[in-house]
């Protein structure tokens, strides 16, 4: 009788202790398991989808299962992070983003563990009171005024990625601000630094502006440029993808040098090697006459051509739809022909010469030649005749 009462009391105490412990929802509670309890075989850890910004939190969910796949409850779970400088985790599995990067959160129950990766990206939490997002080592700043957002929003910033094959774009200037569907009730101010040497050749820095990337082209947002600081600024009404590019100058280009390449303007069919039915080309002059654009073969390649009064030269920047570095040609009018040279030469030490010649009847011949002996002899490469459509 005495042994039965002691055993009953022990079982009751164990049951009460087990009931006081946490469940399998990711909490750090739990208690000792009995000899007949199935041990934990797997630990599964999940986090809400998506990246987070510093200051934002995510609650982890933890599921424990035995060897038969049955869910277990009432077991202790502990958490740890590979980097508290990126993401901290509480005893209940609440993750707080601290700095940018990737941290791995580990949940441990008995001898088993499970992990989940937490990616913290640049950005900030901005609410109805407004605020400023500073990112990319200070090269990007988004000033959100009070009343622009109705609720707290995690604004993310990512740099890089592929720009459209637009020769007006500044390479390396693409940024994505998310969530991209977010709109502002009051315009925000976006400031972005850029490297003017990565823009189209021959373009004055004062002609660069902030653009919204729209499909395969750039849409100027106007605004201003601080040439001394290499920074553009404009109002934005919606988050999305942005880049720096050349915008049409407000002052027309009336000097006669700007008209030297006008003979190339028109809609053409290019005869290559004398064969008809070649690719199309549309060459246009922008309003104000400060640039000439070619759309080659329905966007397979596009170029911007400008006369630069600073060096007295014509500059062509040709962007390929397939990507890669643009083709840069620099030169000028020689007699009745426009003669441009590839800069820098490729291969090194060679001379690549491109010549545009007006032919009888209004056609224009475009001839590319290469010399590897210092210009003593040239070998023809591309040889196309632009025939008016």
Q: How many strands, what sense, and barrel or not for the largest sheet? A: 10 strands, antiparallel, barrel
What proportion strand?
over 45%
Count of distinct strands: 30
Q: For the record, what CATH class of the largest domain applies?
A: Mainly Beta
Give the CATH topology of the largest domain.
Lipocalin
Give the low-confidence spans. 1-27
Helical proportion? under 10%
Give an account of the 3D structure.
With 389 residues, this protein is mostly beta strands. It folds into three domains: 21-120, Immunoglobulin-like; 123-246, Sandwich (Chondroitinase Ac, Chain A, domain 3), CATH 2.60.220; 256-388, Calycin beta-barrel core domain (Lipocalin), CATH 2.40.128.20. It is 5% helix and 47% strand. The chain contains one helix and 30 strands. It has one helix at residues 2-20, and strands at 42-46, 57-59, 61-65, 71-72, 78-81, 87-89, 94-97, 101-109, 112-120, 122-126, 131-135, 140-144, 153-159, 175-178, 183-193, 208-214, 217-220, 224-226, 231-238, 241-246, 266-272, 280-285, 292-296, 301-308, 313-320, 327-334, 337-342, 351-358, 364-371, 379-388. Strands 21-22-23-24-25-26-27-28-29-30 form a ten-stranded antiparallel beta barrel. A six-stranded antiparallel β-sheet has the order 10-13-14-20-16-17, with no helix packed on it. Strand 29 and strand 30 (379-388) form a beta hairpin. Residues 1-27 have low confidence and may be disordered.
């Amino acid at each position: 009788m005495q042994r039965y009462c002691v055993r009953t009391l022990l079982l009751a105490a164990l049951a009460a202790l087990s009931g006081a412990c946490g469940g399998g929802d990711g909490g750090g509670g739990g208690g000792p398991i009995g000899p007949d309890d199935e041990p934990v075989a797997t630990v599964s850890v999940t986090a809400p989808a998506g990246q987070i910004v510093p200051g934002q939190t995510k609650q982890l969910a933890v599921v424990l299962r035995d060897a038969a796949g049955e869910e277990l409850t009432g077991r202790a779970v502990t958490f740890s992070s590979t980097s508290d400088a990126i993401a901290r985790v509480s005893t209940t599995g609440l993750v707080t983003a601290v700095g940018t990067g990737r941290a791995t959160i580990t949940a441990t129950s008995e001898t088993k563990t499970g992990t989940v990766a937490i990616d913290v990206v640049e950005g900030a939490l901005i609410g109805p009171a407004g605020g400023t997002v500073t990112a990319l080592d200070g090269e990007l700043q988004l000033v959100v005024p009070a009343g622009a957002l109705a609720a707290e929003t995690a604004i993310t910033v990512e740099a890089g990625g592929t720009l459209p094959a637009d020769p007006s774009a500044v390479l390396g200037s693409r940024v994505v601000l998310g969530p991209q569907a977010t709109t502002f009730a009051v315009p925000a101010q976006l400031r972005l630094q850029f490297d003017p040497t990565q823009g189209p050749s021959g373009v004055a820095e004062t002609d660069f502006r902030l653009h919204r990337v729209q499909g395969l082209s750039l849409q100027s947002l106007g605004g201003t440029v601080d040439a001394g600081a290499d920074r553009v600024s404009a109002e934005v009404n919606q988050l999305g993808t942005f880049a720096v590019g050349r915008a049409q100058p407000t002052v027309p280009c009336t000097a006669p040098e700007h008209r030297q390449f006008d003979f190339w303007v028109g809609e053409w069919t290019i005869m290559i090697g004398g064969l008809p039915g070649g690719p199309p080309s549309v060459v246009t002059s922008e309003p104000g006459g400060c640039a000439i654009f070619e759309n080659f073969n329905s966007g397979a390649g596009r170029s911007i051509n400008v006369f630069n009064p600073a060096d007295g030269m014509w500059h062509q920047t040709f962007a390929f739809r397939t990507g890669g570095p643009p083709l840069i040609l620099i030169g000028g009018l020689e007699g009745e022909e426009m003669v441009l040279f590839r800069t820098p030469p490729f291969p090194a030490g060679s001379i690549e010469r491109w010549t545009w010649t007006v032919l009888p009847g209004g056609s224009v011949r475009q001839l590319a030649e290469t010399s590897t002996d210092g210009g003593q002899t040239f070998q023809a490469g591309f040889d196309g005749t632009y025939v008016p459509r």
